[in-house]
Write a structure and sequence with these properties.
By secondary structure, the protein is an alpha+beta fold. It contains nine helices and 19 strands. The chain has one domain (2-252, 325-367).
Length: 368
């Protein structure tokens, strides 16, 4: 694994905007990239598969042992989650955030419910590779995997209609939503976009303002927000993507449960639901945190790094400190995608400090 530089493409901003990527200033890392060997890619793929198996086992454990309330999940939606899991409702995607320095792989967290950076991972970096390294490969079958997932869903449910919903006030969510809609349309589905605030709950069903009953809906909106805002609507008769059981996986306490079940895994960092007195170096994360908010890295007694935000009221998890690796004073985190339950490719975000947030740069990659 190496970090390298390259001349920027002429008119690259216009090129990526033509692909639907409009929020790129100070975010897209034109002029730099990472190289991976095929052996390193194989290791990342294997780790992703193993981690997904472990996180599924952790959900099964929590549901079987009736421990969902410990995850700060409202009692009123517990049965909905259990039913969603027992029905084996289909999942489209998720993203593991991993430490990787070319040798060691460790899990930081799983963005299981509403992961973004999808368009740049699937399309923008592939377009960059085709322009700059047409003879090289990239660990990236994300787009093809998403299209196939929607085909599988359509066939499984014998449907050709899909709604996609988010809060249109969030520009990044909106463009990720529209890319997901594009993959569903490529799969042959009839797709309609709606602001999530326009969904109406009527007698056990969700409807549009025009009165159309929604049977399948991809949402880019956190389950925990929906639990608090409209718990009754969470029990409506429809198929959600992501399904409700993903609310368990996206909860940072799942990291504690995974370590409890698999303490000898080479991919897991020791993680606790409280701070042990003997631990001096740790990462504290809110269990419902997003985009690097309210994260604290305690490096020693006097040194720490911390971000602000509005998360943490429900509690925190504490993970053994594992600082991001350093490449020319830049610190990458590997976003390893799970598409339809299988490893699908990676995207890389890097920062000059140690906490990755929504302003961290996205850097493309190739396989050499």
């Amino acid at each position: 694994m190496e970090r390298k530089t390259i001349d920027e493409r002429k008119n690259y901003a216009q090129k990526i905007e033509e692909l639907g990527f409009f929020y790129h200033p100070d975010y897209w890392g034109e002029g730099r990239y990472y190289e991976f060997t095929s052996e390193e890619v194989t290791a990342l793929e294997r780790a992703t598969q193993d981690l997904y198996s472990m996180v599924c086992d952790a959900v099964e454990y929590l549901i079987t042992h009736d421990r969902l309330p410990e995850m700060q999940i409202p009692v009123g939606v517990k049965d909905y989650i259990r039913q969603s899991w027992e029905r084996d409702e289909l999942s489209v995607y998720g993203r593991f955030d991993l430490f990787f320095d070319g040798h060691e792989i460790k899990l930081y967290e799983f963005n299981a419910d509403t992961p973004t950076s999808l368009l740049e991972s699937a399309i923008i970096q592939w377009n960059w590779k085709e322009d700059c390294f047409p003879d090289k490969d990239q660990y990236n079958s994300i787009h093809e995997g998403l299209v196939q997932s929607w085909k599988d869903i359509a066939a499984h449910h014998n449907t050709d209609r899909l709604f996609v919903a988010c809060s249109r006030e969030n520009e990044e969510d909106l463009w990720n939503l529209r890319y997901m809609a594009y993959t569903a349309m490529e799969a042959g589905l009839d797709v309609a976009e709606i602001d999530i605030s326009q969904l109406y709950y009527r007698e056990g069903y969700l409807q549009t303002p025009q009165g159309e009953t929604i049977q399948h809906c991809f949402k880019l909106y956190p389950w925990e927000w929906m639990f608090n805002e409209s718990p009754e609507a969470c029990g409506a008769h429809l198929h959600w993507y992501e399904p409700m059981w993903k609310a368990v996986m996206s909860n940072k306490l799942i990291l504690y449960i995974m370590y409890l079940l698999f303490p000898d895994s080479p991919y897991l960092l020791p993680t606790w639901n409280f701070l042990p007195k003997t631990v001096r170096q740790y990462c504290r994360k809110p269990i419902f945190g997003r985009e690097g908010s309210n994260v604290k890295l305690q490096m020693d007694t006097l040194t720490s790094e911390e971000t602000g935000g509005d998360y943490g009221v429900e509690g925190f998890v504490f993970q053994q400190l594992k600082l991001l690796p350093s490449f020319s004073n830049h610190h990458p985190v590997i976003g390893s995608w799970v598409i339809g339950g299988e490893p699908g490719g990676i995207g890389i975000r890097e920062t000059e400090n140690y906490i990755t947030g929504n302003t961290s740069m996205f850097i493309p990659h190739i396989i050499v």
